Amino acid sequence: MQVNDVHWSDAEQNIAQQAFHNAYERETQALIQEIQEHASRVSTLEDIWQLHNFLSARRHEIDGKYDYSYPALLFVFATLVKQGWLHLDELTGLDKGKLAKIASLARM
User: Fold this and answer.
1) Does 9 fall in a domain?
2) Among 25, 66, 69, 105, which one is least packed by beta carbons within 10 Å?
3) Separation between Cα atoms, residue 16 and residue 19, nearest integer Å
4) Residues 107, 36: contact at Cβ < 8 Å?
5) Does the residue 49 lie in any domain?
6) Whole domain around residue 68: which residue ranges?
7) At how many degrees (to 10) do helices 10-40 and 45-65 cross?
8) Contact indicator for 88, 102 with CB cutoff of 8 Å
9) 13 assigned to some structural domain
10) Which pTM value belongs to this model?
11) Is 98 part of any domain?
């Protein structure tokens, strides 16, 4: 299965959108919690700059990771599965070939 040749049915698009949304919500909620913990320890100006740098890096990482374009989606899902933000069972209903590709890439 060539990544550029992947066709997404309407049903698969709905499954993909929900899974993408769920993973994004999980990761952003975890980030919010982490920021609250960091912020509670801020006591110096240097702590503020470190928090700023942390936030800038995380924003760059999250913005780059969550690419909802169909040619990239198999790779995005594999990354999210590998990092624990998404579970393969949330992708149930996708074509078996897509699931196999995602599972395979997630093991790399």
Assistant:
1) no
2) 69
3) 5
4) no
5) yes
6) 45-108
7) 170
8) yes
9) no
10) 0.90
11) yes
26-38 pLDDT per residue, tens? 999 999 999 999 9
Residue located via tokens 């100006």: 45
91: Cα within 13 Å, side-chain hemisphere = 25
* Pairwise CA distance, residues 80 & 87, whole Å: 8
Alpha carbons 58 and 77: distance in angstroms, whole number: 18
Q: What is the total count of domains within the chain?
A: 1
Residue 78 CA to residue 86 CA, distance in Å, equals 9
**What Rg do the C-alpha atoms of the chain give, in angstroms?**
17
Tokens of 91: 């992708």
The answer to whether the CB of 85 falls within 8 A of the CB of 23 is yes
Quick one: tokens of 36? 């609250």
Q: Is residue 1 over pLDDT 80?
A: no
User: What single-letter DSSP state applies at residue 94?
Assistant: B
Q: How many residues does the chain have?
A: 108
